[in-house]
């Protein structure tokens, strides 16, 4: 087992990794920007090293700063969390060349599955259903018109190196294709330094379903069921639940088997997530693979009774999957609300600033993952999530009622948050009936305003 792990991240995920390492009796090193000097992960790590100014491009996104801190602190391994460098194949390779274990899959697998077009081709090669679309990237506008005409409208243009909704454009007809192609390519070039895009059939009103994969270096690969992440705004998730209210046991088995097969075929190791679109006819289509831990991993932990961060560390240290992970079953229903410092009724405008009062809810079946506290200053440089509220119940109805109770206990004064908006979603009849999809939040918000 490792003696010391550096956490190459910030916020609640950095704190989450530090806690897992402490339970494994591993010393931890936090890195932080000047804007994060008062963050809780800095206070609770065994050591902390400043790596630059507030903007992430000058701190958390610089591999040389992270590696320098790792060498100064003499660590055995680096946990990248999610975001930042977590899916950066070059960073994983640098760690390897410096004899520091990267807690995640190999650089070659990250590179293979990080390119959305290559990941799609890989999934198709191993028999995982994919939506009809272009064979490889689309060369130019003429090629885009030909592909779209062949597969039929509506279509979705996607950045090959994309993520987080960047470089994506739905196109409903031929008249909108050229501008959609140009806009998606330009946005992808700006966001990722790569303007390559591909085209696939647009699945209307789907659910966004993701399967949690855990794999070790001894040939053990399992899935821990699915999470329904369909409640999104601008392709950013705001509420997730596990299991999905949409899947039947038969579909769940087929999707789980496809996910495990793909992970085995590509030689995947550590935790990862395979994401699908699921339509009203019961068909599922591979969308992408995230080669890291997900923000919403706690709901899987609560439903399946495991600790995915500790499992990541154990796998990276060469150990086999824990027996309780290999043999686990569904035990409960869990829901997560991402508490963001935003004003949902002003187009989700960020709301940085000082938190005057922070009171987290408690009681049976309630978990709060956060790095903030009363008096904390929410910086403007990063993602606006300040906490994750996770509730667990014996049934979905119990979990919904518990989440509403917890949201109404949650006190955050001094900034705007998404709490009231999430509460209004949870009491809506369509949500309680499981009758929602990836476009539902926008329609719901329009009715609210």
Key descriptive features of the protein:
449 residues, alpha+beta, Rossmann fold, Dna Ligase, domain 1, D-amino Acid Aminotransferase, Chain A, domain 1, 3 domains, 8-stranded antiparallel sheet, 5-stranded parallel sheet, 22 strands, 26% strand, globular
Describe this protein's structure.
The protein is an alpha+beta fold. The protein has three domains: 100 residues, Rossmann fold (3-Layer(aba) Sandwich); 70 residues, Dna Ligase, domain 1; 242 residues, 2-Layer Sandwich (D-amino Acid Aminotransferase, Chain A, domain 1), CATH 3.30.470. It has 16 helices and 22 strands. It has an eight-stranded antiparallel sheet, with helices on both faces. Strands 3-2-1-4-5 form a five-stranded parallel sheet. A hairpin with a 5-residue loop joins β9 and β10. α7 packs across α8. The mean pLDDT is 95.
Morphology call? globular
CATH architecture of the largest domain: 2-Layer Sandwich
Q: Strand fraction band? A: 25-35%
Q: Note the main sheet.
A: 8 strands, antiparallel
Count of discrete structural domains: 3
Looking at the structure, the CATH topology of the largest domain is D-amino Acid Aminotransferase, Chain A, domain 1
Percent helix: 25-40%
Ends apart, CA distance between termini = 54 Å
Number of helices: 16
Model regions low in confidence, pLDDT < 50 over at least 5 residues: none
Mean pLDDT: 95
| Widest sheet: strand ordering | 13-12-9-10-11-14-21-19
């Amino acid at each position: 087992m490792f003696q010391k792990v550096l956490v190459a991240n910030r916020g609640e995920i950095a704190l989450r990794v530090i806690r897992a390492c402490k339970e494994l009796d591993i010393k931890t090193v936090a890195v932080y920007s000047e804007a994060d000097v008062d963050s809780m992960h800095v206070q609770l790590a065994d050591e902390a090293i400043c790596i630059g100014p507030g903007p992430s491009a000058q701190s958390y996104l610089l591999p040389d700063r992270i590696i320098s801190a790792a060498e100064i602190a003499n660590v055995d391994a680096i946990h990248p969390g999610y975001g930042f460098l977590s899916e950066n194949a070059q960073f994983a390779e640098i760690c390897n060349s410096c004899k520091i274990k990267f807690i995640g899959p190999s650089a070659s697998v990250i590179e293979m599955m990080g390119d959305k077009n290559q990941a799609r081709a890989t999934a198709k090669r191993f028999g995982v259903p994919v939506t009809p679309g272009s064979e490889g990237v689309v060369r130019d506008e003429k090629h885009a018109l030909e592909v779209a005409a062949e597969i039929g409208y509506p279509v979705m243009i996607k950045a090959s190196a994309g993520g987080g909704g960047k470089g994506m454009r739905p196109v409903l007809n031929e008249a909108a294709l050229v501008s959609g192609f140009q806009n998606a390519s330009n946005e992808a070039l700006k966001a990722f330094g790569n303007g390559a895009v591909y085209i696939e059939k647009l699945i209307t009103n789907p659910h966004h379903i993701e399967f949690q994969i855990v794999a070790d270096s001894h040939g053990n690969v399992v899935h821990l069921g699915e999470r329904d992440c369909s409640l999104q705004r601008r392709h950013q998730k705001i509420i997730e639940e596990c299991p999905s209210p949409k899947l039947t046991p038969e579909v769940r088995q087929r999707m789980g088997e496809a996910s495990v097969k793909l992970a085995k075929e590509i030689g995947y190791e550590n935790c990862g997530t395979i994401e699908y679109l699921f339509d009203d006819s019961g068909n599922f289509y591979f969308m992408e693979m995230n080669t890291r831990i997900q923000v919403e991993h706690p709901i899987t932990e609560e439903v399946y009774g495991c600790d995915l961060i500790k499992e990541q560390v154990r796998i990276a240290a060469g150990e086999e999957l824990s027996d309780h992970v290999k043999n686990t079953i569904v035990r409960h229903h869990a829901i997560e609300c991402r508490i963001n410092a935003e004003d949902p009724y002003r187009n989700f405008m960020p709301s940085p600033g000082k938190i005057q009062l922070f009171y987290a809810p408690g009681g049976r079946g309630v978990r709060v993952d956060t790095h903030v506290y009363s008096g904390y200053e929410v910086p403007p440089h990063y993602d606006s999530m300040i906490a994750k509220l996770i509730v667990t119940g014996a049934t979905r109805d119990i979990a919904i009622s518990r989440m509403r109770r917890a949201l109404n206990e949650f006190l955050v004064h001094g900034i705007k948050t998404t709490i009231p908006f999430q509460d209004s979603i949870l009491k809506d009849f369509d949500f309680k009936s499981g009758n929602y999809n990836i476009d539902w939040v926008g329609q719901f918000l329009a009715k609210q305003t």
